[in-house]
Fold these 3 entries.
Entry 1:
Amino acid sequence: MFETELTRTLNIRYPIFQAPMAGGPTTPDLVAAVSNAGALGNLGAGYLTPEQLRSTIHKIRELTDKPFGVNLFVPEQPEDSEEAVLQMMDHLSKYHVRYGIAQTPPSFESQEHFEEQVQVLREEKVPVFSFTFGIPAQEVIQAMKQQGTVVIGTATTVEEARQLDMAGVNAIVAQGYEAGGHRGTFLNNVSGSLIGTMALVPQIVDHVSVPVIASGGIMDGRGLLASLALGAGAVQMGTAFLASPESGAHEAYKQKLLSSNEDSTEITCAYSGKAARGIRTKFMNDMGQYSGTIPAYPVQNTLTREIRQAAAKANDPEYMSLWAGQGLRLVSEQSAETIVKQTIEQAISIHKSF
Ligand SMILES: Cc1cc2nc3c(=O)[nH]c(=O)nc-3n(C[C@H](O)[C@H](O)[C@H](O)COP(=O)(O)O)c2cc1C
């Protein structure tokens, strides 16, 4: 049931992707559990060093022989003035004091190792390579495809999807406004690229030649069936898996996910300098006063890293980033396998009822 061109290409049973979620949630346990359940587990590897990336891929392979994906961030060159960075460091100093963190100047040496990460993915011949925040060079896309890796890009508008299609990707994630985590927007500004999943998916489907994966606010079989009806070849679900036992999300974050509602999230640049949807926190509210002067990603991400880590250590979710989509009331603590199974069973039962 629900076999699509994409499930055949990827050799998976169900048209469900567990979203790659960088920063810890997508543990090898989660990725493997989802793949073993017949869907596609995806590792969010944007922040991993090449060594961490290789060893994590090995761990996933110890836990599953099914296909899985690895997701990277296409790097960007921020252009913030030194003055803006120093000013932000000054604004953030109160949080350093709060957690007793030493005020050492952060190192901005390349935190991203995109080329080396790509090299690892090529050597490891991962089944699926997905990316967000832009389009990698042609050599990267072609080299991956030539070795048999399925290449998937992320779009938040039809024009972005068209450019990905022209660049030769095998499939496109259509990331709607509801989605948790960072916006993949790379052409126009984010505020002009906030299209709801219901509107975005069929319009992208109509304008590209490759399968589309619907993403943003999809939490169960209802969302899966609706997405297939809109023309998607699969769905990508992030928030739905965040509170599962296999997810590496912090315990305080999981509790927040389970107690939050559809109106609990906001899109903010406060944590990383790039627009992302997360559960509203004191940190987001405090930083509202500096909006417009927040250094771009990845600079702000580096500037807030120690604060987020200290908050996590102190079990203080108000200063952690709590990325989540708008489907929050539907979050469950079920195992990853159960989430996949229930999603499919619900979609089948609704389909039968028509
Ligand atoms: C905690 C979290 C981290 C995320 N990290 C990534 C990432 O590393 N790469 C990526 O392409 N998308 C990332 N996303 C976005 C997802 O791919 C997807 O668009 C989103 O989860 C879909 O919306 P949903 O959370 O409502 O299911 C992240 C989402 C969340 C919630």
Note: The mean pLDDT is 96.
Entry 2:
Amino acid sequence: MHAFSEAFRAELDALLRARRDVRRFRRDPVPEPLLLHLLEQANLAPSVGLSQPWRFIRVQSPKLRAAVATAFEAANAAAASGYEGARAETYKRLKLEGLGQAPEHLLICCETAPAQGHGLGRQTQPQTLRDSVVCAIQILWLAARAEGLGIGWVSILDPQGLREAFDLPPTWEWVAYLCVGWPEAFLDIPELEAEGWEQRRPLADVLERR
Ligand SMILES: Cc1cc2nc3c(=O)[nH]c(=O)nc-3n(C[C@H](O)[C@H](O)[C@H](O)COP(=O)(O)O)c2cc1C
């Protein structure tokens, strides 16, 4: 059998539509086997040259979590000051992280000089290593949603300032800081839409023929 069943495909479509970026978490823990299962699934992602350049760090140290929260506050204040008028007011209302409540924090890095893959596929486009890491993150995001778990990507941070605290090897690039946990709720539409910040555009707006 080459295709999955119609029922599965309908469920998959529902999953894709129901995935959300989550910023409001309950504090109850994520069972260890479940988290490891999700990371196993992310480890199945496609990668350039089969290099598997993703590196997952489970951030458990209160000191590191506090450093990330401080970095968010600084970057968010700087970002807020770049808006004016009604847009600035809306920005201030947005909740853009769930760092304080999410029971699990993941830092996801990219090994930019992996021996694995023997350089295949990335000679002219070295960024395909990072692209591969994002493929893994997307799988994690969807797999988590299938379990009823929420993920929130926190990009409002200056990773340069945090590299030292995390003692990252020089060849590891910071790609994503993710909050993971049980959501207070899954919204039907992106929170940024609900808050009037931005709207999802239909396919016709982003599809061209040349
Ligand atoms: C690379 C990336 C970075 C993001 N960074 C943030 C962030 O720092 N804070 C936040 O609240 N949401 C962040 N998001 C979530 C987006 O705002 C969200 O995906 C978008 O509004 C669509 O909503 P949905 O994911 O719920 O469909 C990020 C998403 C991506 C893909």
Note: The first strand starts at residue 54 and ends at 58.
Entry 3:
Amino acid sequence: MRQMIIDVNDFIHDHPELGNNEFQAVELLTRTLAEHQFTVEKGVAGLETAFIATYKNKEGGPVIGLLCEYDALEGLGHGCGHNLQAASITGAAIALSQNLGDLPVEIVVYGTPAEETTSGKLPMIRHGLFDRLDVALMMHGGDRTTVDGKSLAMNLIDFVFEGKAAHAAVAPEKGISALDGVLMTFNAIEYLREHVRPDVKMHGVITNGGTAANIVPDLAVAQFYVRAADRPYLDTVLERVYNAARGAALATGSKLTIRQVKQCENKVNVDTLNKLLLDNARQAGIEHISPPRSSTGSTDFGNVTYIVPGACLRVAFVPFGTSSHSTEWVAAGVSESGHHAVIAAAKSIAAAAYDLIADPNLLAEIRQEFQNAKAAFQANL
Ligand SMILES: [Zn+2]
Ligand SMILES: [Zn+2]
């Protein structure tokens, strides 16, 4: 088992594939799962490189979801360590399936493509693929072993301004500058920044600022990430951001289209589930456990944790403070510490899942905590 997990890890690491093109990884993972009595369905949710692999031990038990990613980064390779996830989750699922005895349970492995780009989990959510789960677990490599305590709710938005082109010197009075709309949006958001909660992050770039300085730009586009600690509050901020852009359109006489590019939900934190993962990480021989990271971004796993209680174990395989999406992460993926992490993660996830299956009270407690955590966001408004 140990060698199989390491072989899967090393193969995926050495054959990096970009999001939605992870054909070799999916072939290897689904073949391995099928060889161990998992029923495999490929191409789910309209995504060629998404899959579901199911193992049913006995009717009437919980449904445990184990999620893995396997996409690499353009020009870098496996700089986010997704080779570790693919191998450890697959290994955990197989090991678990072989040690269930008489316990009723269904184990569902999800192959979720393109985490770094188009976020494969989002169409999988829209197709309702996670709805039947009782719990969702995943892992990620890291510079420390911990459990994510939070991730930010996020909307990625294009503000498309349309104006009217004119000669910028001969007849500027005949033009409407779409770029002015973009610039005023940036300024209005700067003023807004003072009057939102400190957890709000608003950061944008101009993706189209016009073509030539002697033409009044008839098209300009700004792209913004707007994030907050929770979805209900973020929705209130978003409306104010949209109003900033609407005001800019009104002031300049340009036409505004607000285009949603991507939406992530904040992670719904379930402490009991986090603790279960860390307890099992300790038992798997990981000695140094760190507190959750204080600064985080956003992830499509957050959207999954809005539907079902979920947690992500981070397992150290690079020195503390080493930035992800780096050559250091790529190199460590097949190093001794990478191999150690992938095995420890597989053991931790399998053992945590086993605890959830063996103790229905624990699962009930986690479900209740999940409902309470979601209600708390609403109450905080
Ligand atoms: Zn990444
Ligand atoms: Zn990643």
Note: Residues 80, 82, 115, 140 surround zinc ion (ligand 2) (CB under 6 Å).
